[in-house]
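Issue: ligand-bound run for magnesium ion - logging full I/O for the record.

Environment: standard queue, default settings, no custom constraints.

Inputs:
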Amino acid sequence: MKLKKIYICSKCGSKHLKWQGQCSECGAWNSLVEDVVEESTKTSKKRAIVELSTSRFKLKEISAQNLNKISTDIKEFDRVLTGGVVLGQTVLIGGVPGIGKSTLIMEIADKLASKNLEVLYISGEESPQQLAQRAKRLDITNEKITVASITDISEIIKTINETNPNVLIVDSIQTLYHPEYPSSAASPVQIRECANELVKIAKTKNIIVFILGQVTKEGDFAGPKLLEHMVDTVLYFENDKDELYRVLRTFKNRFGTVDEIGIFEMTEKGLVSKSDYESSFLNDTPSPGASFSATYEGTRPVIIKVEALVNRSFYPYPKRVFSSIDSNYAQILLASIEKNTPVKFDSYDVYINVKSGFKTKDRALDLAVCASAVSSIKEIPIDTKTAFIGEVGMLGYVYPAIAMSKRIAELERIGFRKIVISSKTSESLKTKTEIVKIERIAELYSLLNKNRQ
Ligand code: TYD
Ligand code: MG
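Outputs:
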């Protein structure tokens, strides 16, 4: 067997014969990692461990079974899975080390086992004793959970064939290794080939497979990224383990909606669903720089708080620090305020933080970002029962957001009394909450200034 060195891009999976600083396929920098493959000869075809069925069916004759979603009884996890898991589904769960992947999956194992499903938990990271310790901490004693420390994928498949589980958990994909390939565990080839076997076993045996994957701190999905296209569902823990809440987001789902988020809190007794997480900041007293908005994640309105701190600068270049929002866009919003209102930030440092622990792509937040910045520089506290929803364009116009009625209904439920939105909103809004419509950001300025007295 002759081995050959190749380089694989950890972002897009493309193969290169020589190392280069930038991947010529996807443009990522420093993403090529070394790997070894067998020199291909006509006879060296790799043997797959699991073979897929080659039977053909008439599409019309296959009964499209109703997708029987099995609830995990963990509210926030069911939400990211749009109701639950289905037999045959492969789910990838990624996140930085220590975020709570193994804890969450142990809780899921327990819930599924209590629904009479046999669970096989394969861990290449921890010994059965360590798993037992975690289970004890979480009060999990279910007889239907079997644990094993195996890393050879052919051994795993053998164990599956012997024990016939309904649910397979692999913790984590980086520890597995395929005996037919020469490279070491966690190399792109190993990750891809092992995942390939797992996906096939899920489909042929109709079992639910959860694959856990480590993600580096820089948010680089190195390994897991390579298998996103193979699995049915991709979930990532978005934030860092130092933050109060853990946010799990759906990036891909063949059985439901994407962009759903689940919010959890790590407690002494595991990860718990935090469906009312906004209660932690809702009753703060009004202070300059704070404002509220409702973003829309997947199918869920989420109340968020924007905090801005605008202070006289003592630096040659005033500071601009933005967290959890796109910094380029935040700069544009500041420029738009300067152009369209008397507020000038030139000799001020501006710090803006979205207090939610997750990164939203929803631009409906813009209006609250502007409100917070103006409120801070002008020292005008905003009533904590007022929310701002709208996208702000470069020219200072305020544009409507999607799903306004759902956002407003949620704000109303939480107890907001006044909502500032775009005058261009065409959705008919039935609400008891006071709605203030504005066309341009200059009106936001006058509105806040009115509160000054
Ligand atoms: P873990 O689930 O092992 O993270 P991952 O598998 O993503 O690497 O654990 C995350 C952290 O949570 C770990 O430092 C210990 C802590 N923890 C709790 O605070 N409470 C608990 O009940 C458990 C099981 C863990
Ligand atoms: Mg773990």
